[in-house]
Specification:
The complex is a heterodimer.
Chain A lengths: L2 H66 L2 H15 L3 H17 L9 H5 L1 H12 L4 E8 L4 E4 L12 H7 L6 E9 L4 E12 L2 E11 L1 H12 L5 E6 L4 E4 L14 H5 L4 E5 L2 E7 L9 E4 L16 E8 H98 L4 H26 L9 E4 H18 L3 E5 L4 E4 L1 H22 L5 E8 L3 E8 L6 H4 L19 H12 L3 E6 L4 E8 L10
Parallel strand pairs in A: 3-10, 13-15
Antiparallel strand pairs in A: 1-2, 1-5, 3-4, 4-5, 6-7, 6-11, 8-9, 9-11, 12-14, 15-16, 16-18, 17-18
Chain B lengths: L2 H9 L3 E5 L3 H14 L2 E5 L2 H10 L5 E5 L7 H11 L4 E6 L14 E4 L4 H13 L3
Parallel strand pairs in B: 1-2, 1-3, 3-4, 4-5
Helix pairs in contact in B: 1-5, 3-4
The chains are: A alpha+beta, B alpha/beta.
């Protein structure tokens, strides 16, 4: 696969990994965060609704307080209480019971006994208030300090109220408390009625008790509907023991909430939690909790109502489907994923372009390296061919003499035969000479035959022998050009690639030979010296062939650089020698001019670490 | 008497100077020449041959190698020609490229190794020559 594709795919995979990681992280974070936020928001909304109900009820109370503070109320009650002052406690009870009995027996409001209670000046005042706040009040009535009704807007069932729970709660043994009587559904008012009971005091003494039955259907439905319209779940108003006071679309007091929540309501908690795949928030209506003067409660059953309050308060409960609560978060997660996919496609394109851009210089470098490698292989092959050509030339020199001798031996035998002078001894002598020379030819071949084989292993050899073998190969060629070879060498064992080193030595000797021929030097001589150092040996090949021009000295190791005429050299001899000595044999090669010629110095280590040739 | 024997009789009186630096060639060729000529002088290089020629200027034929130490065959032949311009010279060489040598085209060159037929052909030419 091309590098640019590798790079672009890598970038895409990294992008995809990052996207998946971000998506999972965001989805997880968003789920927890959204859930927590929703829970907190619902909790606040539950409290807000609870407070609203509390304020509404307190508003109703404030109106009642206004009515109670009217001078006519206290003056009328003082007057009525004075009528009872003449009775003892027992007489009072008897009197009130008698009146109550008479009241019960009176069937209509037109009855002469009932009329004074409904038409006295206080009753008229109350009726006036009822007219002013039309639809709010069911009945408005006032009892004196002993529970006997003194004025009412309508004929109630009884006249005596001192034994009733709401009266006693409000009278509070003479202390006077405001009592919210949670009566439940009132069929006569066709709504939910709260009785607000207010003690009317003067100088710390209770003059009477004012009670107003207030239809709060509108308040309840307003609170619930207002919330439900927002779409963040649905709101219920619930009593502490689980009976639902008001829920949109259901009858009043007809259902109960989940048991899981009752403990939280009982503990008067303001909180939120997850119940059966719903977020549920709840808050108490703290009307009676934050005040010593107000009591909220009632009685489950009495003569005029059912499903009344059983020492409970109200709570607002909001239920919200968890999936709906998380819908926005999910939608955002999906949006991030879709955007991510688009970004991946975009990043893929960018990655391709970037990959193409990044990989271009690398690919160019690879191509250059490949080209250089191919060129080096070509050069090695060319050098090998040149070396082979030189070797064949050397073999020709070595063979020339024995072949001539063999040829002349045969010629002599033929001549003896033709001249009829053949003798056994001379025939034997000529034949023996032919055989001897044939063996010489064979030896020469043996000397050369391994030279071209590749060398895989380092061998421990005497460098003197390598020099001798090298000079043997080229000796005849040198002799034919009257070039003397002077060897000042001794034994020294080294680790090396012996045949490669031999190739270097022969190449150097061959270069000297070429220089001698070109410069036509008399008394041509090549001297070989050896200098042993602590860890290495230096072998110097010095000739008197005229030296190398200083201007070209820096180029002599370059490939294809040759001072020879074109037909004789390819310019790879010294290049290959340097490559072999420095890259394969871990040595150093230098060329320097001396007085009459040139010295090639090769320094080789005694020990050679395993190199690339051994791989 | 066969043809070769007749040829030998015709040329045996000619005086030959043979020059070659290679011992085996010198010995083998010298032995061959001695089978046909009664008077063969053998030298190891051009310098020695020129000295011998100068001391004893009565040779009919010079057979010489070209590449030799001290003085090569070409240089020697030029020196001898200055003494005897008409001397018959046969060059022997292992080289396949004769153009690289400055050889008079009238001279005969033979390639080493010498074949029996080449030698006989040369001797037939010698026998035909008017001495």
């Amino acid at each position: 696969m091309q590098l640019k594709y590798k790079i672009s795919i890598s970038i895409m995979l990294i992008s995809l990994f990052i996207l998946i990681f971000i998506s999972i992280f965001y989805a997880n974070w968003s789920y927890k965060n959204t859930l927590e936020n929703e829970k907190n928001q619902l909790k606040e909304k539950a409290l807000e609704s609870a407070k609203y109900i509390e304020i509404e009820l307190l508003d109703k109370l404030d109106l009642l307080k206004t009515i109670a503070s009217a001078p006519i109320v206290s003056s009328y009650l003082i007057q009525k209480n004075q009528e009872y002052d003449k009775f003892t406690t027992i007489q009072k009870e008897k009197h009130i019971n008698a009146l109550n009995q008479k009241w019960i027996e009176s069937k209509t409001e037109k009855d002469s006994f009932v009329k004074p209670y409904l038409n006295n000046e206080l009753a008229m005042f109350l009726k006036k208030q009822q007219e002013i706040f039309a639809g709010m009040y069911g009945e408005l009535f006032i009892t004196n300090g002993d529970g006997a009704m003194v004025a009412s807007t309508a004929k109630l069932t009884t006249l005596a109220h001192a034994n009733k729970y709401w009266w006693r709660e409000s009278f509070a043994n003479g202390d006077g408390k405001i009592f919210f009587d949670d009566r439940g559904f009132d069929s006569s008012a066709n709504g939910y009625v709260i009785g607000v009971v207010y003690p009317i005091k003067k100088d710390g003494k209770i003059l009477g008790i004012l009670k107003a039955n207030i239809n709060i259907m509108n308040t309840l439905s307003f609170v619930v509907n207002r919330y439900n319209k927002k779409g963040d779940g649905y709101l219920k108003i619930v009593r502490t023991k689980g009976l639902v006071v008001y829920e949109e679309g259901k009858d009043l007091l007809s259902s109960t909430i989940q048991c899981d929540l009752l403990k939280n309501l009982k503990n008067l908690e303001h909180n939120s939690k997850i119940l059966q795949n719903n977020l549920v928030a709840f808050a108490p209506v703290r009307l009676s909790l934050d005040s010593q003067e107000i009591i909220f409660g009632g009685k489950p059953h009495s003569i005029d109502h059912l499903k009344g309050n059983d020492d409970e308060i109200w709570h607002t409960v909001i239920c919200f489907d968890k999936n709906k609560a998380l819908a926005q978060s999910k939608e955002t997660s999906y949006m991030i994923f879709y955007i991510g996919v688009m970004l991946i496609i975009l990043s893929g394109f960018i990655a391709y372009m970037v990959g193409k851009w990044i990989s271009r210089p690398i690919e160019e470098l690879q191509a250059t390296q490949q080209k250089l490698k191919v060129q080096e292989e070509i050069m090695i092959a060319q050098a090998r061919h040149a070396a082979m050509g030189e070797m064949i030339s050397m073999i020709a020199h070595q063979w020339r003499q024995p072949i001539s001798a063999i040829s002349m031996g045969a010629n002599n035998i033929l001549a003896d035969i033709q001249l009829q002078t053949i003798e056994e001894n001379s025939l034997k002598e000529d034949t023996q000479k032919i055989l001897t020379k044939t063996k010489e030819l064979s030896k020469t071949i043996d000397r050369f035959k391994n030279f071209f084989q590749s060398e895989k292993n380092i061998s421990r050899v005497d460098i003197k022998n390598i020099i001798e073998d090298s000079s043997n190969v080229i000796e005849k060629s040198l002799q034919s050009y009257n070039i003397k070879l002077d060897k000042n060498i001794s034994s020294q064992m080294i680790e090396t690639y012996s045949r490669e080193l031999m190739q270097v030595f022969i190449s150097i000797l061959k270069n000297s030979q070429e220089m001698f021929l070109r410069n036509k030097i008399d008394d041509a001589k090549i001297s070989i010296f050896m200098k042993k150092l602590e860890n290495s040996v230096i072998i110097s090949f010095c000739d008197n062939a005229g030296g190398i021009e200083e201007s070209i000295m820096s180029k002599i190791f370059n490939p294809y650089f040759s001072t020879k005429n074109e037909k004789n050299g390819v310019g790879l001899g010294l290049y290959m020698s340097k490559t072999i000595v420095e890259k394969h044999l871990n040595g150093i090669i230098n060329v320097k001019n001396i007085a009459l010629g040139v010295c090639v110095e090769i320094e080789l280590p005694y020990l050679l670490e395993k190199g690339e040739n051994d791989e | 008497m066969n043809n070769i024997q007749q040829l030998k009789e015709k040329i045996r009186g000619l005086k030959v100077l043979f020059v070659d630096d290679e011992k085996d060639v010198r010995e083998g060729t010298g032995t061959f020449l001695n089978k046909f000529f009664d008077n063969v002088e053998i030298c190891t290089n051009g310098e020695e041959a020129l000295d011998v020629f100068k001391k004893n200027n009565h040779f009919d034929i010079i057979i010489t190698d070209i590449m030799m130490p001290k003085m090569d065959g070409i240089e020697m032949s030029k020196a001898i020609r200055q003494i005897d311009s008409k001397i018959f010279i046969i060059f022997l060489t292992a080289s396949r490229n004769m153009k690289e040598y400055d050889i008079d085209l009238s001279d005969i060159t033979l390639q080493k190794p010498l074949s029996f037929d080449d030698m006989i052909l040369i001797m037939e030419k010698l026998s035909e020559k008017q001495w």
